[in-house]
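Please, structure for the following, as tokens.
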Amino acid sequence: MSLGLCCIGALLLSYAGMAGLCLAIDRHHAQVWGRDATAAARWGLRVVGGALLAAAVLPCVWGWGGSVGSVVWLGFLSVGALLVVGGLSYAPRVSARAAVAAGLTGSTLLLLLV
């Protein structure tokens, strides 16, 4: 498995996971969709966001091993959070749609790498 694919997979999953957690907050959900999230939507976004962030550790561990991979994973979490913050600031709807695409692409890539 190449390190490039590991980097792309971890970054896509981190971005999508951070966007899911961010959109679970009423303020950001209203910023994107114009209304507050329901309790079920908040819960679902938290679960999916957390699962995507947990899945982002797999390509890191596969590419760099356990000890270095966990540190690299934290770096990708930070980059994913920065991308979400920048995206929500300038283009909220585009950022949300990009997060869905990143989550689907990252999950597919993860399944192909297994």
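The longest helix spans residues 66-90. The mean pLDDT is 94.
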